[in-house]
Amino acid sequence: MYKRILTLAGRGRESCFLWGPRQTGKSTLLQSLFPRAPRYDLLLSNEYGRLSRRPALLREELAARASGGEPVLIDEIQKIPGLLDEVQWLIVNRRTPFILCGSSARKLKRGGANLLGGRALRFELFPLVSAEIEGFDLLRALNNGLLPRHYPASDVSGMMEAYIGDYLKEEIAAEALTRNIPAFSRFLEAAAFSNGETVSYTNIASECGVSLPTARQYFEILEDTLLGRFVPAFQRRPKRRVIAAPRFYFFDVGLANFLLKRGPIRPRSEAFGKAFEHFIFQEVTAHSHYSGLRYPISYWRTTSQIEADFILGDHQVAVEVKGVEEVAPHHLKGLKAFREEYKVKHSIVVSMDVRPRLVDGISILPWDVFLHRLWKGEVVR
Q1: Which phi and psi (to 5°) does residue 31 adopt?
Q2: β-strands 362-366, 357-359 pairing
Q3: pLDDT of 92-107, one tens digit each?
Q4: What span, in angstroms and rounded, lies between the C-alpha atoms of 96 and 364?
């Protein structure tokens, strides 16, 4: 059992949505936080069937239940959008707190569903982070990814294949997000080549045999089902000409490995550097949410190919990720160029260096030191 950092502010006194990709541990977390709470699991066919036919059953059943002060848990709420009208009525008229859990808000947002008019907080659960794992193993994380079932596994390839199959079946086909499942399956593999890079919709559309608007729609599906996210370019009053297109990352490095058929990730390889950068992105993304700071994450790259991997906040912190054992002067070029344009509180290179160093005002931090400081709140405040 992993001790998750996300604890849900309000602890059941306030209603909230809890979103997260499949198998990140949402149900396990809620069971540990609220073991006695009543729960409706819409993945169960009988539960789904009766509540989809008659959503008012929720109100009637809860009226017959003595309130024990626990919130009501509803898993996979996106499967029955009409249930949210009953939920809102119960929040307003009975002051019943709810925790509404799901892996995709697409059906709710695109269908104009009732999102409770600001009456519910919003939380997101990510794959595991280093601070949640005792005896954290970086190489295991880069190879297996950080889903709770995948990280400790001896062979993750079969589990990842099943994960993608379940995603296509349960998230894409069952919710009718697209009718062309074979094309979307091909798209997943093509999109993997854009992981950590700017996206060429034209190239991906050509590879998948779909139109340009369809390729864009497929990326929207990945975002809405929380399987990936775009990182915008930092463009605040640039002096140099900068790249404006966003970058794309899958939600878990293990998923990107599988789709790219990378094979074993070993130190000092190109694949190691890519996976290492992806892993650091996962950590800062989760920290941004779990800390409550919700600072934006962007990247900076000029048309002459000078770049900084991640800009945290409004240029408060600039981070470069290098999977090398000793950072050299030429690795600092991007951060130095960024500091020439913007006032930066911290400039950091995250690397495989053995000990921290300070070079020209830039902190060179071993990855474990950086993550320790990040989760202690010393990197972004």
Answers
A1: -65, -35
A2: antiparallel
A3: 898 899 999 988 777 6
A4: 50
